[in-house]
Design a protein that fits this description.
With 334 residues, the protein is of the alpha/beta class. The protein contains eleven helices and eight strands. It has helices at 19-40, 99-106, 112-123, 129-147, 203-215, 232-239, 249-257, 265-276, 281-295, 300-313, 321-327; strands at residues 3-5, 56-66, 69-78, 154-169, 171-183, 188-196, 220-226, 244-247.
């Protein structure tokens, strides 16, 4: 299970302990399992392997350097010692070009045929189409198992945000990859899944994502933190009616600066701080009134932005300061 202990700097995408590093490990090990299956001619634990003259003989640990950091993989062995892995060759210490495939695959952004084509490019002409097909099946199976694994019945907090990643789909382009991360009842952080988008997602898209999570066993969420993604609150209301939706305060501040001249950014930030650090909602209303008196004439768009987001902004003000720090932002994902 891909679970990271809560870290003060948040969950990393790359590097030691990062999401991509863990998913790369799963893809590589699935591919290696496909390789040895093709080499031996039978599946693990299959009756056809009995008295076949060769069989699996455990695994050995090996660390390879990848685009997403060092990854330790378990490389399978055979009794005869004739198995020569190709995706991670013997004595090979560096492996590049797997990050795009891993992220696309785990986000369901590539078809079975596209994964086969990518693996064929990785393995080269010396590997047969049948071998590529066997490896592809194992890789798809491993990632599908991760994306569809059972979830806890209740999570105190869910964070939803997008990570923009360059992905090759005919041509290289930025594509939003939506990450749903949970804080568990035990205090750990768990990536529940990742989904590829095209930037135009709405209520129907989020209803699909949340229904998928519910079908995996997630019955209730106490609070969901997001960045004002279009249609998301309506989808949450449909799937988990009692869930409190909290907008990311950091994103709200960033969006405010879009409507202000650069020379006023520090002043606007200082004037807004009493609003989001207010001891209560009533106090926040008063402080926002003061901000409106000071800046409303010059920057009416900022006032409108906060008024439109107010219902999703104020829920975290009902909690203690320690809890506010956890639930006021999606920066844990960033």
């Amino acid at each position: 299970m891909l679970v990271d202990r809560a870290r003060s700097e948040g969950l990393q995408l790359t590097g030691e302990g990062g999401l991509l590093q863990q998913l790369t490990k799963r893809v590589l090990e699935s591919a290696l399992e496909g390789e040895i299956t093709d080499h031996l001619g039978y599946e693990k634990h299959e009756a056809a392997g009995k008295n076949s003259g060769n069989s699996r003989n455990g695994t050995r640990a090996k660390t390879v350097l990848t685009d997403v950091g060092p990854v330790e993989v378990r490389v399978p062995r055979d009794v005869a010692g004739s198995f020569e892995p190709q995706i991670v060759k013997k004595r090979q210490r560096r492996l590049t070009g797997v990050d795009e495939m891993v992220l696309s695959l785990s986000a369901k952004g590539l078809t079975h045929g596209e994964i086969s084509a990518h693996l064929a490019e990785v393995y080269g002409a010396e590997v047969s189409k049948q071998t590529i097909s066997t490896i592809t099946d194992k890789v798809m199976e491993g990632m599908a198992e991760w994306q569809n694994r059972p979830l806890d019945r209740v999570y105190p907090v869910l964070f939803v945000d997008a990570i923009n990643v360059k992905i090759r789909d005919g041509q290289v382009a930025n594509r939003p990859i939506y990450v749903v991360m949970a804080v568990t009842a035990e205090g750990t952080r768990d990536i529940l899944g990742i989904w590829a988008g095209d930037g135009g997602e709405g209520a129907k898209y989020w209803l699909h994502v949340f229904t998928e999570l519910k079908n995996r066993g997630l019955d209730d969420v106490l609070m969901l933190v997001c960045d004002g993604l279009k249609g998301l609150p309506e989808a949450v209301e449909t799937v988990w009616p009692r869930t409190i939706v909290q907008t990311c305060v950091v994103h709200l501040l960033r969006n405010s600066f879009r409507y202000a001249a650069r020379q006023d950014w520090d002043k606007v930030a200082k004037a807004l701080k009493p609003v989001y650090t207010a001891p209560s909602e009533d106090a926040a209303v008063e402080r926002f009134g003061e901000f409106q008196d000071a800046w409303g004439r010059k920057y009416p768009a900022i006032i409108k932005l906060w008024e439109n987001a107010w219902a999703e902004f104020v829920p975290f003000l009902s909690f203690d300061v320690e809890i506010r720090k956890v639930i006021c932002s999606t920066n844990a994902i960033e």
